[in-house]
Every structure is written in structure tokens, then in C-alpha cells.
Amino acid sequence: MPLPFTRPHLEADVGRSLAAFLGSRPRILAWSRTTTGYLVGLPDRFAHQVDGAWAQTPWHQIQRGHWDEKTSSLTWTDADGRDCQASLSHPGRFPELFTERVTASVLFQRRVDLGRGRYLIVALRRELGGSSTQTHWTVVPGGGADLQEPGARAAADQALAATRAEYDIA
């Protein structure tokens, strides 16, 4: 009988499938079963399986995410602006790991108000895991802002230039 504070390991066939997808045996920090597959948290990214097919997203490429405990639903927006959702049938520690890893990737962020409730978030994000020192600047619109609007794009460019100059970051 397992101890009450332990969690079962990921099923062997799922682990083998994930290792084949990644090309090596993964270091799993947390995992969760979903209604269509699995979410598996790794140090530098998470893998998501839907109907047997794996995909992966580095933590620094998550623009935003939200865990809704009432509906057991995890939603996130990736770097390309795609909204994703997973219904977790057995959440385990995955929601906490998701929040911790996304937050850990943020080195700096600044909110730029555009008026009428619209804003931009300018952030410097780092790749997690291993010895990577790679960083990436991101600009995420919020409150209905659209980076295709000339004013929003100019504000983003100006905020990015000012932040880089202020912190002497190229």
C-alpha cells in the first residue's frame, strides 16, 4: 500500500511514449491526467498529450495561464497567441508547478497603459532548465489592446527601447 503522501508514478507506457517523443528519458516534476491525455511538467517546458499525440511548450513561451479549481480547468495562451485549455481529471501538483515555472521564467515586466483599459506587458523572460542563459523580450497585449494598431505597436517599441536603455540590456 502506498504511503498517503506519495503519488503514483506516470504509467509506464505513457512514460515510454513521452521519452520517445522527447528523444530522451525526461525528468518529470509533476504530471496530471486530462480528459484527453496528459500534461507533464519538466524543468524547462511542459509536454501535453491529446489523443495520443504529444506537443511541448517551453515555460517562457506561456504568455498567461489560469487554473480554475472549481472546473478543474487549466487555460493558457502561448507565445503565438493561441488559447489552449485542458480539463484535468486528476490535477495533482501540476497547477502549482505550472504557476511556479511560468513565474520563474519572468526576469522583469512592466505594464504600459494605452488608455481606455487597454495595456501592454513588456517582459524579459528566460529559458528555464539546464545551463541556458538565453533571454527573450516579449510584448503581450491586454484589455483589448491590439499590437496591429499603429499606436499600440509604437507604444510597445518605445517601452521596449526605454526598458532596455534603463537596465542597459541589449
Topology of this protein?
Elements: H1 12-22, E1 30-34, E2 37-41, E3 45-50, E4 53-58, E5 62-68, E6 73-78, E7 83-90, H2 94-104, E8 106-115, E9 118-126, E10 135-142, H3 150-167
Antiparallel strand pairs: 1-2, 1-7, 2-3, 3-4, 5-6, 6-7, 8-9, 9-10
Features:
single chain; 170 residues; alpha+beta; PH-domain like; 2 domains; seven-stranded antiparallel sheet; three-stranded antiparallel sheet; 3 helices
Query: Total domains, how many?
Result: 2
Question: How widely separated are the two ends?
Answer: 56 Å
CATH architecture of the largest domain: Roll
Fraction of residues in H or I helices:
10-25%
Largest sheet: 7 strands, antiparallel
Question: Averaged pLDDT, please?
Answer: 91
CATH superfamily of the largest domain: Pleckstrin-homology domain (PH domain)/Phosphotyrosine-binding domain (PTB)
Structural class: alpha+beta
Brief summary:
By secondary structure, this protein is α+β, with helices and mostly antiparallel strands.
